[in-house]
Amino acid sequence: MIRSSAHSDYPPELVLDRKSKDVTVVLPAREVAGTIGPIVERILRLGELVDQLLVVDAGSADGSAEVALRAGAEVRQEDELAPAFGPVLGKGDAMWRALTAVRGELVVFLDADSADFQAHFVTGLLGPLVCEQATQFVKGSYDRPFTAGGVEVPEGGGRVSRLTARPLLSAFYPELAALRQPLAGEVASTREVLDRIPFATGYGVEMAMLLDVRELVGAQAVAQVDLGQRRNAHQPLAALEPMADTVLAVVCERLRRDGRLRTELPRSAVAERPPWASLRAPA
Description:
The chain is an alpha/beta fold. It is built from ten helices and twelve strands. It has one domain (3-280): Alpha-Beta Complex (Spore Coat Polysaccharide Biosynthesis Protein SpsA, Chain A), CATH 3.90.550. The chain has an eight-stranded mixed β-sheet, sandwiched between helices. A two-stranded antiparallel ribbon has the order 7-8. Strand 2, helix 2 (36-44) and strand 3 form a beta-alpha-beta unit. Helix 2 (36-44) packs parallel to helix 3 (64-71) and helix 6 (159-172) packs parallel to helix 9.
């Protein structure tokens, strides 16, 4: 059973008091000059709660890296991390490579395109990790309003989650069906868990990470925290179809590995990076 809570259950003072391990916040960034500065500033205002704020930039042409650096973040270019593995293959690959520069034992991944970012995104995600002994992986949960033609629909966003990810979880992984935003980019985990799972390289990283964590430590170690509301740019329908295809491909691959699916489907394979723990193991 997924444990659910709200960010207000974990005020900054409580999280700081319970914190016993270093914390790294990672922001994968691609063309986010308009939002990255305020996000970095609000995270740094948390003071000793965050030991490392790492922005991993995808060679943004809009100056995202420079904005983040001026705001006070540590900035690395994704293609300079683990270069022996060749070209970077999307967001998931950037997150995987970011672990080579992470110093904290608790890691928070946040999207860098939130126009309404609040510091409680960090404290809310960290709360279950530092206050609930059994929790090893935390997903953000939030409302996603959708605006079109000047009209706002309170629950109209997150269409791939609502129409693809959540039905797939309900059908094949019911113990995870309570997750409201399974594709949320707002995630916190112990470094140990992240080192022991593979990373899907593109858009499928969130679903793959969720299913692999379930396999590794069980659904009982997963929690979700209501972060309130999140606003970011909405993708056109034509861009959502390949995203949905990728999510479906990730689920099908896990079902094949578990012996629950034997029919090959005409879906493109999702490239993955191996667990870092397997690469560090002695020969």
